[in-house]
Amino acid sequence: MSSSTEINKDTFWDLLAQAKARCGQDLEASALWLEGELLRMGPEQARNFDNVMHGYSSLAYKFGLWTAASVMLDGCTDDGFIDFRNWLIAQGKDVYLAALKDPDTLADVPLYGGGCFESLAYIGDKVYEKLTGKNAYDSIDRAAYEKLEQELARDIQYGEGINYPYKWNETAEYLPRLCAKYVPPQALAWLIQHHNDTWNPTSREVQQARKTAVKEKKRTHRGGDAR
Asked: Rounded to an integer, what distance in angstroms lies between the CA atom of residue 198 and that of residue 77?
């Protein structure tokens, strides 16, 4: 049992760290343990957990990270990227912050559970509804949530190029270690030739990002084999 009595940005990460320490790579067991802890802590803290969780997920909505997910998962849909961000958050604060500074650091993180932790996004709301009979989203204070997201963002240092939607012929330069680990050279060459653009080129969001976002400067492979 956790000693936490209040969920804030620090105890949120503490709770996830305890879940991982207890349950390892068993995401279902982690979800059940977190649910039990939030039931013990009460509806207000369940709602706090839900808000912090969605705040961190929203702040990780970056094209560079989505490119990394596409490399690791052999493609990544909109819904898949939501589940991937949940999975990333479950890896803990250090992994999360490192990935937003440089997604290539995910080459050091074991990929398990298919890189998907869909249920993590619903635990807080599920507990809140169990305890109150109400949906957490029906009573959200939008101004308070926006203030919370700003607070969470202060801990994040986004890396160069994180906002750019990379094509396959640019990805090996941006994510050399991840590509070396997950995409054989022959497969990468085929993708570049036959399906170079992983994004919907008609998307206004993608078009705008390619006009305004900066790509990371070319870098050489950082020594050492990907683990």
From this structure: 10
pLDDT of residue 217: 67
Cα separation, 139 vs 91, whole angstroms: 29
What pTM, to 2 d.p., does this model score?
0.91
**Pairwise CA distance, residues 150 & 145, whole Å:** 9
- Cβ atoms of 66 and 163 within 8 Å: the answer is no
Give every residue of the chain whose pLDDT is below 50, as ranges: 220-227
For residues 36 and 124, the answer to whether their CB atoms sit within 8 Å is no
* Number of other CB atoms surrounding residue 131 within 10 Å: 16
* Residue 176 CA from chain centroid, whole number: 20
Tokens for 194, please give them. 């036959």
Hey, what are 68's tokens?
Answer: 């990394």
Q: Pick from 82, 72, 62, 86: which is nearest to 163 by CA?
A: 62
Q: 145, 43 in Cβ contact below 8 A?
A: no
**Rounded to a whole number, what is the largest CA-CA distance in the chain?**
55
